[in-house]
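Hi L.,

You mentioned the student needs an example of a multi-chain input paired with its predicted structure. This one should do, with 1004 residues in total across all chains.
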Amino acid sequence: HAFYSTNSNPSKPNVILMLMDDMGWGDLGVLGNPAKETPNLDRMASEGALMTDFYAPNPLCSPSRASLLTGRLPIRNGFYTTNDHARCSYTPQYIVGGIPDSEIVLPELLNKAGYRSKIIGKWHLGHQTQYHPLKHGFDEYFGAPNCHVGPYDNKKQPNIPVYRDADMIGRYYEEFKIDKSGESNLTQMFIEEAIAFIEKQHQTGEQFFLYWTPDASHSPHYASKSFLGTSQRELYGDAVMELDYGVGQILGKLKELQIENNTFVFFSSDNGAALSGGAYVGSNGPFLCGKHTTFEGGMREPSIAWWPGRIKPGKIVHELGSLMDLFATAVDIAGMKLPADRVYDGSSLLPVLVDDKMNKNKTIFYYRGNELMAARRGMYKAHFWTWSEGIPTLHLEYCPGMQVEDVTTRNLTNHMAQPVLFHLGRDPGEKFKLKLNTAEYKKGLQFIMEAVIEHKKTMIPGQPQLNMCDKGIMNWAPSGCETLNKCLHGPPSNPFKCSWPV
Amino acid sequence: HAFYSTNSNPSKPNVILMLMDDMGWGDLGVLGNPAKETPNLDRMASEGALMTDFYAPNPLCSPSRASLLTGRLPIRNGFYTTNDHARCSYTPQYIVGGIPDSEIVLPELLNKAGYRSKIIGKWHLGHQTQYHPLKHGFDEYFGAPNCHVGPYDNKKQPNIPVYRDADMIGRYYEEFKIDKSGESNLTQMFIEEAIAFIEKQHQTGEQFFLYWTPDASHSPHYASKSFLGTSQRELYGDAVMELDYGVGQILGKLKELQIENNTFVFFSSDNGAALSGGAYVGSNGPFLCGKHTTFEGGMREPSIAWWPGRIKPGKIVHELGSLMDLFATAVDIAGMKLPADRVYDGSSLLPVLVDDKMNKNKTIFYYRGNELMAARRGMYKAHFWTWSEGIPTLHLEYCPGMQVEDVTTRNLTNHMAQPVLFHLGRDPGEKFKLKLNTAEYKKGLQFIMEAVIEHKKTMIPGQPQLNMCDKGIMNWAPSGCETLNKCLHGPPSNPFKCSWPV
Ligand SMILES: [Ca+2]
Ligand SMILES: [Ca+2]
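Structure written out for the whole complex:
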């Protein structure tokens, strides 16, 4: 398309994917957060394209990230469980599984096109040796395999290691401090690492793929001292402001080095804001519920594409999109084709971003675990199953203050006989079900079902990777622990079936 | 302040107040509407100042408008009822009352400073002869005294008249068509009237005050043919798009005439989006409930100040503000002082808009009828009374899909002993009550109560204007009906106590 015909640059465009953790659609000023505390992201949107209808492939961290990096739904790449019906699963440090060798991870492909790839931040595709990012295409690594939860006692459970490339260089709450007050310099480190990598690549002239995934917006939230207390929104807002600052620093560096016209940058989040922390959490704006759920609040993401000179400034894109499209987009940018030996669930965004060619037939599939919960096509969304809360006794509220009859059902509820249909244009908050048997209901449902039937017909689920757990394989003795004298001793291996209560 | 010292223009700045009807905070793209269909308003915000924490003085049309034009709360200017406790009231065409002669309406003051004033659109401060806008300071009038509801049969109830200056020139649904499909050219007429008035004033060189109040976003929504079906959001969205287009036309005309640096423009709405129409209504974004209620969704308004050369482009203003501040602001712009013979509830916005001097001590008082329901100061809001629905049997949902225990109470509930407190920074949606007896609760409540006690101490309620109704005084025979041969005959006068079920 037009993009290539005008590309006279000999080196291929760089790709930067900025993936936030649990940040909600409504956390950005440009997407209506009343605090309006994201000036850098707002500017990024005004210089690039704001994608209003862009989705995570799953409402939870690991499966969403696995899908981004493989271009395939969790049900295909194995980031799901069959231990229970329609349960999301992820990769805590006692998970046995991770990204299968059979999956093609994005940097593996990009390496073939001459890219050097770095991941900075949270990996979350498995922490055992065979799942290490450097074994799946990344050339450089600064970050951790799991969430920064803790501190742990290093007896029952070890603190999460932080890696530089192949080896660990410390642990969270130890060498990499996170204070109880929420103070931590981690976001600054992730920013500095990104800047240094970009500068180094600019000097060598080698095209690069940077996967920047800081996790300060995932509970427990943190921010560095100069950001603490600066937000209207307490610590969560401070964290968002620092991440926003980081985005500004990175885009500013690209401009300073004058490589902004040769760098595709995409900003998004891995799932909707987690709402179970009361008032101290992110915002999903006008959308229903949050993380864990297949309502819009669980999977619609704040998303901005930025590529000066290629993407028209201030563009608003309503085409449906998914993090999985970024895989195909990066492959497209690298001038490659998607491998033909497997099914891909995304497609390149360049036609709509660069050439304004909107595809109105795209479908979004909302899964929890092994179940297709909902699907969206055009403005219509059908819920086949609804679920809003795992274990009421844990007081985990995924839809606080929200209640839609027959929709925010605490228990998993089957609507297959008569799917619940919403028109997301006039009703983005999923509050007003279309009346059954109306012409609009029938037409909307048929439009969706055409795609769903085709999808199910060709669906061959992958081997589930998230069924088995084992406390013996936690991050006791990661590579490099000997040098640091930080090897710990865990219990003997004792695999058990993981349970995913929520 | 600095503003005056730099003003070397001999003619005083023009003032344009654009007041929408029932448009919600979340209807603007720049405030996070997913459809992002307000490019002109979004540009207005990027060229001017977006006020994120700006309020209507009341969650209903008439009292809100009376307060804007008098600078005083409804409880002072008489736009309330004592027929029932804590009930909002307005001005249907069988209302006896209206704006009292004792109130000083904004154009009356501005006329003294040499301004020519015009109202275009909905007046809503009384339809009887003595309440006509030309008797309260306006020099010109194109619009109607009431909402455009109908059509009526002209027997039990007459259609609402449309005036040009002193005389009626037709009626809604007759000469001024509103089709059942929602098609109507009214917004285009209101735009053309505004453009013509601005051009005329520019030619004469006489400073002007334009009060532009189109009502297409009030049910029944309407849009002209070229806008019908163009929105993601059905007819309501079409109406908003046309209003947005009108804003663009007016600002464009100011630029074309090169008077933009000498014209203060403010855009806002008279109350929150009315949510009782199911999916076919406006959006209050992340806020709780809507029109009629004293939750944020009922009274927080989409608000933009625009004054090229004076207000820094792209400014975000978090200072609390109210439509009543626009009275004081206009008086300030005209170089006058507020009359000293009465209490004013607003203050000039120029210090914060032009000189960046933020007042952190302002208080917002949320009334329904004769009752102070809530108050906000800083980030804290206290609810003294809660109420979310008038008559359940009417199926009027003011908080559809929302439910907060002890807060969205269907019945009027007294919390005076222990007010419900929210922190609107971390919890703009009013979902998480502060725990009683915590240090934060005590401190926040005290900060609010200081202002509330002072407010109540000096409060002398005005004579309630909205207690009596009479079907004999409806718009049967407005001035000018003889010329048009459109006088109707109503029943004899028979005053009765109005009832305000919702
Ligand atoms: Ca996450
Ligand atoms: Ca109104």
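You could point out the following to them. Chain A has twelve helices and 20 strands. The mean pLDDT of chain A is 95.

Best wishes,
N.
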